[in-house]
Structures are given as structure tokens and as C-alpha cells.
Amino acid sequence: MPTDERAVVEGVEVSTDHLIGGRRLGSPTRFTDVSPIDEQVIAEVGRADAATVDAAVRAAHRAAADWGRTPPKDRAAVLHRIADGVEARIDDLSVVETRDNGSLLRSHRRSVMPRVARNFRFFADKLLELDDADDMTFNGNHERVTWDPSGVTAVIGPWNAPLMLATWRIAPALAAGNAVVHKPPEWAPLTASVLGDITLEAGLPAGGYNVVQGIGEEAGAALVAHPGVTRIAFTGSVETGRLVAAAAAANLTPTSLELGGKSPFLIFADADPDAALRQAVGQFDNAGQVCLAGTRLLIESSIYDDFLERFVDATGRVVQGDPRDETTDIGPLISREHFERALVGGGPNDDLGGLYYRPTLFVNMPDGSSLLTREIFGPVLTAQPFRDEAEAIALANRTDYGLAATVYTGDEARARRVGEQLVAGTVWVNCFFVRDLDAPFGGSRNSGIGREGGRWSFDFYADVKNVVTAPSSGG
Ligand code: NAD
Predict the structure, then answer these.
(1) 421 CB under 6 A from ligand 1?
(2) pLDDT band at 350 (very low <50, low <70, confident <90, very high)
């Protein structure tokens, strides 16, 4: 059903339909998009069924045939133009996403949306580096490795940073010569629509980037079960990750899963106390809705009481409020449903009401408490003391997750020893959230399957091929 329904969100016109084969298409049924800032309805969005998803995958297949044959330097040029388009619309993207998911407007403007542009630029440049493909010789034979397009990539992601996390997968998939079908999160679906406009203006062929709006259990499930999908890039919870992996198994579709975490944050007595404190309080950022957050503070016993006293004091200065205000440090939780799930004691913010949950710290939990093992995805941290390095490592590794870990220490040898023994895809020492897009990123244990970043991304999205050529004895 060709339509072009648009909502006006913070003064920005946004399509609320799907984008399939370069055209806006509606659905007879729609879902309601509510802003977490004030629980007001901001849009009625198309709700894709399996037939709509099928149309999107077919459109993507048609586009992939030509896009995959487009020379890398021309693909890279389109990706750079998409980055230009994102940069030109940073303000629009920022205000729409803040209204949609309640994250800080100032973060969207200063770091999140610039990173969206960077995702496209980085993988455009990386693609051109790959063009000097690996050449090897073996027993006099020449071996040439190439990264061939694999077809259609399905991208599904969460609401906490929907555009940034999606483009971290969309950009390398397009760079690899694939077409993309993206199912944005139903709690924050709108910036994907703006990206759709930007890709078309940038000259990405129609069908190169398709958006199917809808509910995870409907549109998402139909997409990951579609036999025409050749790669699945999923970011979300462990529970949904299991469903996605099961659906992918039926078609043997290669799947990259970036899932949840319950990361440890270790503070040794020899750490810079102010730096450790600043970073520990920073774990409340985005109201704790950060997969990588170090939500379990593990503090050496000799400084435990002092550190916590200063922590509570510093947390008292964190400003909670409307995420559009420049002075706000943390905003609301995403939805009523998530708010109820996050309610583990501690604090709804009664002054603000709505979906605002106070930064909360739990201490003295009994061993085995689910507070120490379950991802809450809200502004809720726990604190535990440890006696020595061995106990710190044992406590840190005592979950089913392995996404990230943070260590504060002034002793380099200790940093190396501890880092080697932590189970995590990324370990930060005396820093946090530092991401080189060229480095591998992903989770261990239940936090995910696979690594992306730099060449690892191409290894996943592309069909890696080795052409072995023996010297010809002919004419
Ligand atoms: P979620 O798993 O509920 O939803 C994620 C996406 O999956 C949504 O777009 C949803 O519509 C879709 N979905 C739901 N059911 C589906 C199904 N059966 N088949 C296919 N798709 C389906 O996660 P969420 O609540 O949106 O996000 C929070 C979670 O994401 C947390 O666990 C967080 O740690 C994780 N996360 C991980 C990373 C990472 O890089 N590892 C980054 C951000 C968030």
C-alpha cells in the first residue's frame, strides 16, 4: 500500500511507514510510539506483517545484485555521502531520537549522532583498504583472498541507542556489498526513517536500505526466519538472542549476536581515587540503559567504606530530569513495561513521576542474589567488597555474561594480570567506553556470538573466498 504518512516530531517531519525498494509503504495496522519523557503519543507507526517483511527481503535481493557489483570505490563514495547527510541532519536526528528514547539531547548532538556518521566513513575507508586483498603463495601457487558480497543482511537492534547501534552493522553490511533490511525497535523506531531519506538522497540504489517497522515478535521474527536473508546482525537481550539464533539455525543463516551484560567495575586501593569515582558514578549514564555499563562495583575492602561514602555523595549531585535540558545528567527509562521490570527496590523519582527512576545502589546483598546476576538495564548498581586480587577476579567472573569489564588500578603489572583473567570481550583499564572501530567488539559467554569491528566485520558480512592459482603450463 504506497503511502507517505508523516509525523512531526519536535518540528521534524518523519515518515511513519516502511521503506521498501526505495518507496514508502504503509500497513493497515499501526502501533503507537510513546515518548518516555512524558508518556505522550508521538506517532502511529506502520506494523509490518510477514508479507511486508517478505516484500522487503525481495526488494533487497534485487538491489543487492547491482550494489554487490558496484566497484568498492563507488560504494565507498556513497557511504561517505550518507555520512555527509547524517552530519547535515545531526540536529534533526538528535531531537527526534531524544523524544523517541529519552536519552540526553546533548549526548546525541555531541557524540552519538557524530558516531553514526563515523560508522559510515570508517567502513567506507576500511573497504578500500581491503581492496588490496591478502595475497599469499603456497607451494608455488598464488592465493588471493577476497570478501565477496553475501546478499541480504537483516539488522535488528534495541532502543537504547537505536541509530548508532544499527549503523554499526548497516555500514559494514553495505560496504561489503550487501543490501540491508532493518527492523528498528518498536520503542524508538523513528530515526531509522530519517536515515532512509538520507540514504536515498546520498544515491544508495533503491532497495539497498529497507526499513520494516513493527513489533519484534511479528516483523522481527518473520525477518530472522526468512530464507532469503544471508546474514543476521542482532543486538538485544539474551532472551531474544536465543530466539533469533534458533530461527537462524533453521536456515543456517550466519548470525552475529551482541547481547546483554552485567559487567564488573573493579576498584583497587592503589587506583586514582578521583578518576575511579568519576567513572563509577558515570555508570548511571543514560539511566543505566547501556549494555556495557559496569553495574557491579567491586571495591577493595581497605577503601570500601570511604569510597562508598564519596560515591553516595557524588551520586546525590547527579541531576535527573527532562533529557532535552542541557543541565540534565540522566533522563527516564524507556517504557512503563521496562520501568516495572527494573523496579527492584530503590527508587522511582516521585518528584518527577512518570518513568524517572533514581540512581540506586545496593549493598550487602546475599550471595546468589539475582541483583548480582540479572541485567536490570536501569540506573541500578551493586557494591561488593573484595579482600585481594584472587577474590576480585572470582567475583567479577561470577555471572553468565562476558561483555565488558573495567579495572581501576595504579599498578600496571596487576592491570595485565587481572585483565588476562577476566572473561569479557572488552576490558578497560583506567578508562571506560573507549572504542576503536578497528578493534574487535563482542561478548563472551551469554553476551554474544562473534566479533565485529574493522576487518572482523567484513569477515562476517562477506563471503570470504580464497582463489588458489597454480602456475599455468599452457600457452
Ligand atoms: P530486546 O531483545 O527486547 O529487543 C531487541 C530487538 O529485538 C527489538 O528491535 C525487538 O523488536 C526485536 N525482537 C523482539 N523479539 C524478537 C523476535 N522473536 N525475533 C526477532 N526480533 C525480535 O532488547 P531491548 O530491550 O530492546 O534492548 C535491551 C537489551 O539490549 C539489553 O539486554 C542490552 O544489554 C542489549 N544491548 C546489547 C548491546 C551490545 O552491543 N552487546 C548494545 C545495546 C543493547
Answers:
(1) no
(2) confident
CATH number of 6-259+443-466: 3.40.605.10
Record the cell numbers describing residue 404, joined without a space: 565488558
* 313-325 b/e (C-beta count within 10 Å ≥ 16 → b): eebeebebbbbbe
Nearest CA residue ID for atom 34, ligand 1:
260
Which one of 218, 258, 300, 452 is the catalytic residue? 258
Q: Is 93 a residue whose pLDDT tops 90?
A: yes
Running DSSP on this structure, what letter comes out for residue 472? P
Helices (H) and strands (E) counted in the chain, each on its own, are 15, 21
At residue 469, the 3 state secondary structure works out as strand
Can you give the pLDDT at residue 58?
98
Tell me, using a 6 A CB cutoff, whether residue 441 lines ligand 1: no
What whole-number distance in Å separates Cα of residue 77 and Cα of residue 121? 9
Q: 3.40.50.300, 1.10.10.10, 3.30.310.50, 3.40.309.10: which CATH number matches 264-429?
A: 3.40.309.10
Residues 410-416, mean pLDDT to the nearest whole number: 98
pTM beyond 0.90:
yes
